[in-house]
Amino acid sequence: MRKLKNLIGLVLPVALLTACEVGPDYERPDIDMPTLSKEDIKEFTADKWWNVFHDSVLDALEDAAIKNNADLKQAIANIDIAKAEAGIAFADLLPSVNLKGSGEKDFSSKRGKFAKLAPSRHSLDYTSSVVASYELDFFGKYRRANEAARAMLLSTRAAKESVLLTVTSETAKAYFLLRALDAQLAIARRTLKTRQETYNIYKSRLKNGYCTEFDYLRIEAEMASVESTVSSLAASQEKAENALSVLIGCSPREMVKRKTAKSQAINELKIPVNIPNGIPSDILVRRPDILQAEGALIAANAKIGVARTRYFPSISLTGMYGFESQSLGQLFRTGSDMWSFNGGISLPIFMGGKISSENEKAEASYRKMLAAYEKSIQVAFKDTLDALVSNRHCREIVRSTTRQVNALKKGYSIARKQKEAGLIGLIDLLDVERGLLSAEMELVKALQNQLNATVDLCKALGGGWTIESLNKNRK
User: Fold this and answer.
1) How many structural domains compose the chain?
2) How far is CA 435 from its chain centroid?
3) What's the confidence (pLDDT) of residue 4?
């Protein structure tokens, strides 16, 4: 055993010192980047970007989603798989040592060619040995494979963060949708109540001959229209609850029973005032989807090296030290020991073009991952620019729609008084009422869009931001 250890101990350091790595070393691609924002935009310390809305119900929903969402559980399991694969790749860099033992009993033919040499037709043989084997990584096949596995682990971890960002963003949007539907349903029901009161009045008037059937039918049609709106909004609200239940990982039983707490009305939800004006300079390391794509690119680059090693010889060493005896009781006694050491080399001569095809595949995979990496950067800039534009314009839309609603409310109050005084007809009042209903619905939608635009910006920046003036420390 000592001889075997000494021999392996001599060969391995020499092999490692003389080894090289075939294939290109990774270099981050040169991307044509614009001049980025000089604002000191930093991520939220706790990474809970949704805290910016200061809503306890949303906080609880996000915590439930992080804990129970099925997509996140899959992403975490993928990390464990990638860790195991990285462990397997690392193990290939090390010698393998196995303990073997066997016992054999034979009964030979008395007419066989060795029958006269054997003292008995029965024979016993017992062996016990330790076998060590190692393939010298002269050309970096296993080191490149290990590099690829570690890069895929990086990519998988980033993929989990990307899923986390998507799940938390969708949870926030689903919650804001519920708040918007709550508000719209309240507006529609309030309007329906007014229409029903007007309908009952005109029904009585028609019965007593104080109004035309045309006015009565017009009121009935307007009431039926709002009834339809109420039913549609109620159905949308239930569907939104179901979608949110899936996001936070509810069981089927919980999905049937649960209802989201009402909490704040949509117009009371806090929206951050300090919105970044530009794209942060560290956008490439903020976005998990970019890190995910780069990890896959690094892995593809390493696999080019793995493929190129197929052209070179494979050199392996095997050593064995053990004992053999025809008697189990004599197996470990003096004179029963045995050992062997051998080396082997394998060089491909003719593979029918398989190796060259493997290399072409590896290089094509790298080009594919490079395109995916470049696209991830393009998408990052598009998402951020779109979110910045949406935030700016959504705020303007909310302001203008709010003015419109306020004006229509005053106009509706005036129109009701004019109708009671006989200065305008029913049709005129209904037109004003219909316009107010539409504007109030649009205002709720505008508030929801503004909240969603903030979520999109948080997601685009890799999970929120805080802004500190660069001039703060210069004063």
Assistant:
1) 2
2) 43
3) 44
| Token output for 94 | 């090390």
Look up the CATH number of the domain holding residue 328. Answer: 2.20.200.10
For residues 124 and 105, the answer to whether their CB atoms sit within 8 Å is yes
- Cα distance between residue 105 and residue 125, in whole Å: 7
Is residue 473 a part of any domain in this protein? no
Tell which residue, 440, 450, 437, has the closest CA to residue 402: 440
- The whole-number pLDDT of residue 284 equals 80
Angstrom CA distances, 128 to 102, 124, 144, 319, 339, stand at 7, 14, 36, 14, 11
With beta carbons less than 8 A apart as the criterion, state whether 174 and 238 touch.
Answer: no
Q: What is the pLDDT of residue 144?
A: 92
* Nearby residues of 109 by Cβ (< 8 Å), 6 or more positions away: 115, 121
For position 294, what pLDDT does the model report? Answer: 94
Domain boundary among 346, 371, 404: 346
Domain of residue 284, residue span = 18-93+140-194+243-309+360-466
DSSP category for residue 472: G
Query: Any bridge partners for residue 321, and if so which?
Result: 130, 339
Helices 141-208 & 288-308 angle (0-180, nearest 10): 150
DSSP codes of every residue in 289-320: HHHHHHHHHHHHHHHHHHHHGGGS-EEEEEEE
Same domain membership, residue 85 and residue 107: no
Domain end among 295, 323, 346 = 346
In a domain, 226, yes or no: no
Domain identity same for 36 and 115: no
Residues 331 and 407 in one domain: no
Is the pTM of the predicted complex or chain greater than 0.85?
A: no
Same-domain pairing of 107 and 86: no
In a domain, 10, yes or no: no
Q: How far apart are CA 427 and CA 419, in angstroms?
A: 10
Cα-based torsion angle of the residue sequence 140, 142, 147, 153 in order, rounded to the nearest 10 degrees:
170
Q: How far apart are CA 15 and CA 126, in angstroms?
A: 35
Q: Within this chain, do residues 101 and 78 fall inside the same structural domain, yes or no?
A: no
Asked if the structure places residue 475 within a domain, the reply is: no
Determine the Cα–Cα distance for residues 339 and 335; give it in Å rounded to an integer.
12
Mean pLDDT in consecutive groups of 10 residues from the start of the chain, 475 residues: 48 51 88 72 61 89 93 93 93 90 78 65 81 89 92 93 93 94 93 88 85 85 91 93 91 77 82 76 84 94 93 90 82 83 89 91 95 94 92 93 93 87 80 89 95 91 61 35
